[in-house]
Amino acid sequence: LGHIVAALAMDKVKRRVLLSISFVLSGIATIFICFWSHPMSVLIFSMLTNFLMSFPWTCLYAYTPEVYPTV
Questions:
Q1: pTM score, two decimals?
Q2: Rg of the chain over all Cα atoms, to the nearest angstrom
Q3: How many angstroms separate the CA atoms of 65 and 31, rounded?
């Protein structure tokens, strides 16, 4: 699901901006895991972190060939 949302978001937002935002938001979600000990909160923030960390990989698949063309 994260890859699909990231692919759609890349059409609306620049790739570098999307990379930066997704790294910051996934870091914040990861920090929130430390503050709550309730299992459901840990599960929700872990899922959010996983969702947000799929964004950079999708962006990098499209961004790398643009920056480093093979021809």
A1: 0.76
A2: 14
A3: 32
- In whole angstroms, give the CA distance from residue 59 to residue 45: 22
Per-residue pLDDT of the chain (71 residues; tens, 9 = 90+): 888 998 898 889 888 888 899 899 889 988 988 888 889 989 998 999 999 899 888 888 888 888 888 76
How many residues can be counted in the chain? 71
Q: What is the DSSP letter of 13?
A: S
Helix residue ranges, H only, the chain: 2-12, 15-35, 39-67
Please give the structure tokens belonging to residue 2. Answer: 């994260």
